[in-house]
From TrEMBL:
Name the UniProt record assigns to this protein: SnoaL-like domain-containing protein
Organism for this UniProt entry: Cladocopium goreaui
InterPro entries cross-referenced by the UniProt entry: FrzH/put_lumazine-bd, NTF2-like_dom_sf
Signal peptide limits: 1-21
Key words of the record: Signal
Gene3D superfamilies reported for this sequence: 3.10.450.50
Annotated SUPFAM superfamilies: NTF2-like (SSF54427)
Pfam families xrefs: Lumazine_bd_2
Length: 313
């Protein structure tokens, strides 16, 4: 099946065959930071192709309202998070999401607007995809729209038993006529720093082994989902994560634990939707995390987390 969406230059600057995808202009933000020894270096093209191929089922399933097609890429434990008109979080399970898709109007005529903007890997088992998809109005949705909409999605995919699966999604939307979300000029200086403030307590609470601190920004519906060494799915609730953290040794004063801590990237899909990529050290392991974030009633919350780890050098 010929892909119907456009692919921008990918995170490390690779572009797959033009016969498959139309090139679009790259930005500096599309280039991934240099990776430490131990993360994947060879086979990158295959990794990108596998994820991009999996996303074809996402686009196809949504436009054709084909739940079986969507299930090829959306894991049964996958959750979709959004912001209700009230400003509260909307947490939709896979079955709830599938039910909404089945009730939508098909939209093959909107496929021309679809695009993969960026793929970024935490490891060979964890990937963040930023995509755009245009869909018709959905006035009865928990996050309703009254006109055709261009959605910008942050999708987290995990490689599970050799297959890339979406485990979480956050999104922002603008009328299709607008075509793109842009930060107002007078807020540009705060666009990245605002959600970053929402993860500072995440670092502090983690190194102090204090779930009470971490919970100031880790939302009660948030889950930590990852693919283990056997490529099996592990999902922890906030309380599960808190119990694991509570048992970790305190590392706040250990230079070995802190020396690789850094925020690797901040991206926004809209004024209230962000994705942060960071590293945090818990010797003997260094974790690379993707934190999906929503601003709810003016406060930035981590709404989903996925990660992978490697040994310290």
């Amino acid at each position: 099946m010929k892909p119907r969406w456009r692919l921008g230059l990918l995170a490390c600057g690779l572009v797959l065959r033009p016969s498959l995808w139309t090139r679009t202009m790259a930005t500096a933000g599309d280039r991934a930071p240099k990776r430490r020894k131990g993360t994947f270096a060879s086979g990158q093209t295959q990794q990108f192709a596998e994820v991009a191929g999996a996303l074809e089922a996402y686009f196809d399933g949504l436009h054709r309202c084909d739940v079986e097609r969507l299930k090829e890429v959306w894991h049964p434990e996958g959750h979709l998070y959004g912001i209700a008109p009230s400003g509260d979080v909307v947490d939709r399970s896979a079955e709830t999401f599938f039910d909404g898709v089945a009730k939508r109007k098909t939209s093959e005529e909107l496929e021309k607007h679809d695009r993969i903007i960026r793929l970024d890997f935490a490891s060979t088992r964890c990937c963040a995809a930023k995509v755009q998809i245009a869909l018709p109005a959905a006035p009865t949705s928990p996050t309703p729209s009254l006109t055709e909409v261009l959605y910008t999605d942050f999708l987290i995919l995990l490689r599970l038993k050799g297959k890339w699966q979406i485990i979480s999604k956050v999104f922002s939307a603008v009328p299709l006529s607008q075509l793109w979300y842009t930060e107002p000029y007078d807020t540009l200086a705060f666009a990245a720093s605002d959600p970053v403030r929402g993860v500072l307590e995440y670092f502090r609470g983690g190194h102090l082994s204090r779930p009470d601190i971490l919970s100031q920004n880790f939302h009660e519906v948030a889950r930590l989902c990852f693919s283990n060494a056997e490529e099996e799915l592990v999902c922890w609730s906030r309380s599960d994560f808190a119990e694991v953290l509570r048992q970790q040794p305190v590392t706040a004063a250990e230079s070995e634990a802190l020396r690789f801590d850094k925020i690797l990237g901040v991206d926004k899909a809209g004024p209230d939707v962000a994705l942060i990529k960071l590293q945090i050290g818990y010797p003997p392991l260094l974790y690379t995390d993707f934190l999906s974030m929503l601003r709810l009633h003016g406060h930035w919350w981590i709404i989903a987390k996925s990660s992978d780890s490697e040994s310290f050098e």
